[in-house]
Amino acid sequence: MTSDVPLLAVRDLTIEFATRRGTVRAVQHVDVTVGKGETLGIVGESGSGKSVTSYAVMRILDRAGQIAGGSIRFGGIDVGAASEREVRDLRGREISMIFQNPRAALNPIRKVGKQIEDVLLQHVQATRSDVKDKAVEALRRVHIANPEERYHAYPFELSGGMCQRVVIALALACRPQLLIADEPTTGLDVTTQKAVMDLVVDLTRARGMSTILITHDLGLAAAYCDRVVVMEKGRVVETAPSRQIFAAPAHPYTRKLMKATPRLGIGLRDLLPDEHSSPPPTGGRSAALRTSGDNGSAAAAEIPRYPTADDLRSSDPPPAGEGKPLLIVENLVKEYPRNALKGSLAKFFGRKAEEEKPFRAVGGISFTIARGESVGLVGESGCGKSTTSMMVMRLIDKTTGKIAFDGADIGAIAAKQFATHPMRKRIQMVFQDPTDSLNPRFTASRAIADPLMRLGGIKHGAALRARCEELATQVGLPVALLDRFPHQLSGGQKARVGIARAIALRPELIVLDEPTAALDVSVQAVVLNLLQDLKAELGMSYLFVSHDLNVVRLLCDRVIVMQAGEIVEHGSSDDVLSAPKTDYVRELLAAIPHPAGTA
Amino acid sequence: MGIAPKVRRLWQGCAGAMPTLRTRHVVVTAMLRKIGKRLATVIPSLVGVIVVTFLLTRVLPGDTAAYFAGPAASAQAIEDVRKQLGLDRPLSEQFIRYVSDLAHGDLGKSLTTGQSVTADIAARLPASAELTLLGLVAAMLIAVPLGIVAAVRQGSPVDHACRIVATAGVSLPVFFTGLLLSYVFYYRLGWAAEPLGRLSFLYAPPPTITGFYLIDSLIARDFELFRAAASQLVLPVATLAIFSLAPIARMTRASMLAVLASDFVRTARAGGLSPGTVVMTYAFRNAMLPVVTTLGMVFSFLLGANVLVEKVFAWPGIGSYAVEALIASDFAPVQGFVLTMAAIYVLLNLAIDLIYGVIDPRVRIEA
Amino acid sequence: MTEAVRIDPVEVAPAAMPGARAAAASQPSVLRHAVYVIGQNPVTGLAFGLFLLIVLCAIFGPLIAPYDPLASDTDAAYQAPSAAHWFGTDQLGRDILSRVIAATRLDLTIAVFSVALVFLLGGVSGVMAGFFGGWTDRIVGRLIDTIMAFPLFVLAMGIVAALGNTVTNIVLATAIVNFPLYARVARAEANVRRDAGFVQAARLCGNGELRIVLTQILPNVMPIMVVQMSLTMGYAILNAAGLSFIGLGVRPPTPEWGIMVAEGAADMVSGKWWIAFFPGGALMLAVFCFNLLGDGLRDIVDPQRRT
């Protein structure tokens, strides 16, 4: 597949950014090559410099960035030294790029057909008389139905998946030699993700195009790429064929990433890296586990010790307790009324008002959660899982149905009054976005202290501080960080603050709404293990809401799958995720990308 | 190519431009429905304006009738005015009477000119309109390109100039600018005409068709008159233009900067589109949308500044009409002035909304 | 897009910004950050300096002024700026420098009271409307729309004309006219935060709705309101001066910048520029200072929003 002369050769590339805090090196001495017809994956966590490298290849870096060293050669042309006009000729015609968030990547007030025409005309791939046909043809090639009609559509009229197809059509319109895909499927549902990736691979392989796929998802890289480059903090740590990377990763960082990626056939403890350096400090294996670093907490004084999988397997918590159900949900329904104004105005103009049926977000679901049990609530976006969790949390009111907690009908209490109800402290939540869920003007200790002050009976003073420190230690947050503000903490540290706040009142049920979705995969591994340990220590039940089936498999005893507001399947995790009964779940599982040969 | 094929091509373009996902019938009714909805929101605004002006005039401390009768009125005259205005009646009845007067176009009578306020205002409105419109056009012609260039060439001298203009411009009191301009360009340099009204006393105004001297003199083919009127307009228009330059330039620059940093401009650049296409077709059209919405606020400032500029340049518009009435404690013109300005402003905002509704497809095409 | 800049703040912050070693309480860090920003941006420093000068003039005016601002001396009328009278004298022989300094107090007082009033009324009602929605939002919205239906200066004219020609009424009119801007900003800020994660979390911690407004929403909205206040100060001064220029509010012989420009307007066009120039210049400097201050404050408070 790879010929002798690579299509793209990046050698010893260094990129610097001028920021308010001085010059920052985003990329250092990076070597990347892409052969003709090859699909290369560049994998790394946030801050690894993978996107910056590709922007440099296209010379679309920010004003503050510049190439400080090294060379970029594309098909014989020195891209770094070329004039702006020469590079403009390259862009779109020889090298194309597709980005994350497809709807934002399209001009909102210009028809999609016209946007494709602009690119075609710019690179003289069509004349004014045939450009429209060529644009429609470009749309057809990405399998958009009714391309003549869709030509006239604006981006806001199209779905997310269709917008991504249009972006791909735009990128491939002039038949470039190299396509760079920068996180093209992040934020899309797993089935849409598969459809988009299949399309990209289809089109590029069919024409012998080279592709660079930039992603943080190892599974995705494994499934679709020939070779993989792993980057960490601006440097390339490993380059190898994808099969080799997954079978026998050489570099410790790659190994850590591999281990941390949730996949079939492993347990929660297996996600953690397996180096160990010194005997665990007092506090037992849990304490050691909790001090494992995430994204560089420079102030952590404790020496991290990473227990091996063998160390921990014997102390796995026992299977979920049976007994009286803690939470009972019966026929829960949530409806949102549609716009009533439209109806009355239609009447004013003398037309018959259409009967606007209200929108059913949740259409009558029932489930239970036992004490000490961990239940996963899974589905794609728009299925109603978040709405359900908000109702269970009593943050929004239900339309009809029953929610009973430990025998008491909490569904009957209005959401607005629940905050000051004594039951409030028994059900708590860990939020998805750690940044959004912390008040930017509160220090970490003030945030953790909030529930203690309001519902825990400890108003101020040394007792409050002591309890905060106790909670911080329990979640592995160094006590020195308690007086910092959210913008001074890393993602993993903010997540720990959110967890400490949630367990402060020793609740019996915690709802976790995609708690690790915004975290890097190595940090996710640590946080998931932390959640598992806390559940065992404090005897809590979890309702774990997620779209990521692999993560749910690791943490939950039972799984409930939702689609369009209804429950389509439920059962123990093993049953549902290994031998699903419904087609929908089968489809979901099939769409999860995994390295070829490790299924 | 002749006109007919062009029109046909245009119609086909428009028809083709309609989203083919719906029938045209549905689109037209949707547009009418939207316009109707927007018109409906004008009514509460107008009602609010009428109620507020009514309350203002009845809130006058002391004897309202004495206010309307004027400082020189005898006790009998005051009583007459009281009966005439119905001020001895309950408030609700007064309001109904007020509204019905308005419906008949009756804004009361001016004591200083002796004519009906409506007639006075109608006569003087074109003078203010000419001044304000020209000021706005001049401001936009300078501010919009300035904002665009400043955003495209960040850090350049043009960018710095734009930021200075934007900050200094909002700090300059408009009456002070007018006086400074008169001093420098009339008194010192002698380039500009004497700041005393719409025409120097040597000339007679053109026959009234629109009331705009520039247009009327052209219609009458009197080019010397045109030049005379234009020379009188230069300084006051420049004053108003300088005043409205700042917010427009500031908004254009900020909007362009935001759009230039957006994802779709990045896509356009990554597609290799020429800088001209990226800046004008992609960035500028999107950037102008927020600028159009802020035009409403700019008009609010302009209509207020108009009053001050008319005083400085002795311009016979409705602003100076109100100011003169204030000095003479003649209250009916002031009330008429506030009402008229507010009504015009409401309609201007409506026009801006409708224009915006047409140029932004996200609003034009109801999802 | 610029991944590099998203470097872990824990690593970069302590090393690169010694002034902002903010491990301890919040107060010193705001001050240190303020000093840092002023150091970076000399224009903001200039604005601060000017602001202090204005405040000093307002407080110590009568002590600094060389002559009595009200004392007229017809022999000394129409004198151009000289060593004896730095800013010259007006048609009644009054020293213009003294009058300009004396006017600082009046103009600043009007501005401060208007802004305080509008902040209380507009800020509070805006936050309530944005956070609670429903009827509060509808009423406040209706109020905003009614006021915004008028060109603002015209409305101020109408209010002062109706209520009477006094300084109190200028303050009231300015407050009313600025209400929509304030209320809208407050309402938008509260609305954005209404469903933020930390507000939901606060509900989970047992905070009632009112307590959330006071402890969570207001402290986050305050910085933006303070920026707005500075900008409104400038506008309030212009408004008051404009009203005085057309004869509303302040009566002669009270020294006030706007009325002084009006008094000197006719003479300016016939050559005696100093009578209107210096009060106008002072006006311009004051407003400019408040605008720059507002921009500088915005940089301190919310660097992402700089223009």
Task: Summarize this structure as a short list of keywords or feature phrases.
heterotrimer; A: 599 residues; alpha/beta; Rossmann fold; 3 domains; six-stranded mixed β-sheet; 22 helices; 20 strands; 34% helix; 23% strand; globular; C: 307 residues; mainly alpha; MetI-like fold; 11 helices; 73% helix; 0% strand; elongated; disordered N terminus
Structural class, from secondary structure content of chain B?
Answer: mainly alpha
Residues in helix, % of chain C: over 70%
What's the pLDDT, averaged over the residues of chain B? 85
Q: Largest interface: which pair?
A: B-C, 57 and 47 residues
Task: Let me know the CATH homologous superfamily of chain C.
Answer: MetI-like
Output the structural class of chain C: mainly alpha
Low-confidence stretches of chain B: none
- Estimate nothing, just give the exact number of structural domains of chain C: 1
In DSSP terms (H or I, runs of 4 or more residues), the helix count of chain B works out at 15
Shape of chain B: globular
Task: Give structural notes.
The complex is a heterotrimer of chains A (599), B (367) and C (307). Chain A is an alpha/beta fold. Chain A is 34% helix and 23% strand. Chain A contains 22 helices and 20 strands. In chain A, the strands form four sheets. Chain A has a six-stranded mixed beta sheet, sandwiched between helices. The radius of gyration of chain A is 26 Å and the shape is globular. Chain B is mainly α. In chain B, helix 6 (117-152) runs antiparallel to helix 7 (157-171) and helix 8 packs across helix 10 (223-260). Chain C has helices at 9-16, 26-40, 42-64, 96-132, 134-148, 152-163, 167-194, 197-204, 209-245, 257-269, 274-301. Chain C has one domain: MetI-like fold (Orthogonal Bundle). Helix content of chain C is 73%, strand content 0%.
